[in-house]
Specification:
This protein has 315 residues and is mainly β. The protein has one helix at residues 291-313, and strands spanning 7-13, 26-32, 41-51, 61-64, 67-70, 76-82, 84-90, 96-102, 109-112, 117-126, 168-177, 187-190, 193-196, 202-207, 210-217, 222-228, 235-238, 243-252. The strands form five sheets. It has a four-stranded mixed beta sheet, with no helix packed on it. The protein is elongated.
């Protein structure tokens, strides 16, 4: 059975045992369908288109599978990949607004299917572009470039609505919390254009459709948070004929007053009195006996013993 070709097949087989006995013939119908297996793949093309300016399609870069990719000189890169979801992220260039279209969604997500060619179109439009023919990669004769109408008009969602001059509106509103600061102390950058807020705290801009970065510049001592159609990172997508509104809330950062440390009580030093040792009264030595006294004592003792001895003789 040719399993590489979809279709219905009939197969028959028989068998002979080791004793030479034939088994009955068996017939089966087999259907070969698409899918199955772990080696399915498809083709992913990343295509560069430029409107205005002096840069060529091959001058731009994008991020794919975690690495930075340079466009080929033709402006088209081709990848053979397994079936699944992938993300293509353009690398912005100062002075240009970038957008993604084709088989990529606005976030750059693209799904590869088995045996199918999917194309992600990255369009870079110079700021202030007023229409005209796009700079396209080289294409085979008689074919229109990917992402182009074939008439030099800009594709919808990549800088115009098809007329080459379509724009969208971006409104940025500033709110101040915690202090009576003036709006003129705050400013905002959209893409590469920076300007302060007016007295109303609101700015309205007409921009070429695409993805923009809104950056808040609060007054000193304030912190800002972006919301509305802006992501917290400031990313916003402008669509032709539509209005996107970003809100910026700037809050005064509280200043912590240090708590004074308690004054320690004064240290009072009380000296320990040194004990006074009284001197013992001196003992006067006994008067020594004079030699004459000593002689008298000896004489009296001798005489007493002598008379005692004599008395014992006569008794």
């Amino acid at each position: 059975v040719d399993t590489s070709t979809i279709g219905t097949y009939t197969i028959s087989y028989d068998a002979t045992g080791f004793l030479g006995i034939h088994a009955p013939t068996v017939t089966r119908t087999v259907n070969v369908v698409a899918g199955g297996g772990g080696h399915r793949s498809g083709t992913l093309d990343v295509h560069s288109v430029v409107y205005g300016g002096t840069m060529k399609p091959g001058d731009f870069k994008f991020i794919f599978e975690g690495g930075t990719q340079n466009f080929d000189a033709s402006g088209t890169n081709e990848y053979e990949r397994s079936v699944g979801n992938y993300t293509i992220t353009p690398m912005p260039v100062d002075g240009y607004v970038v957008a993604e279209s084709g088989d990529c969604d606005p976030t750059g997500l693209i799904t590869v299917e088995p045996g199918v060619v999917k194309t992600c179109v990255i369009t870079n439009t110079v700021n202030g572009w007023q229409g005209g023919e796009a700079t396209q990669p080289e294409q085979p004769a008689g074919t229109a470039p990917q992402g182009s109408t074939g008439t030099g008009e800009q594709p919808a969602g990549a800088g115009g609505s098809g007329s080459g001059t379509g724009t969208g509106t971006l409104i940025v509103q500033q709110t101040i919390v915690g202090a009576s600061a003036s709006y003129g102390q705050f400013s905002v950058t959209v893409g590469s254009q920076s300007q302060p807020f007016g007295q109303t705290g609101s700015i309205s801009l007409d921009e070429v459709p695409g993805r923009y970065l809104v950056t808040s510049h609060p007054a000193v001592g304030f912190s800002s948070v972006l919301a509305g159609d802006c992501l917290p990172t400031g990313d916003v997508t402008i669509t032709s004929g539509e209005t996107a509104t970003c809100s910026i809330t700037s809050t005064l950062i509280p200043v912590e007053t240090p708590t004074p440390s308690a004054t320690p009580p004064p240290v009072v030093y009380t000296p320990t009195p040194t004990p006074v040792v009284s001197e013992s009264p001196s003992v006067s030595p006994s008067p020594s006996e004079t030699p004459s006294d000593l002689t008298g004592n000896i004489s009296q003792g001798f005489l007493s013993q002598f008379w005692s001895w004599l008395s014992g003789l006569f008794h």
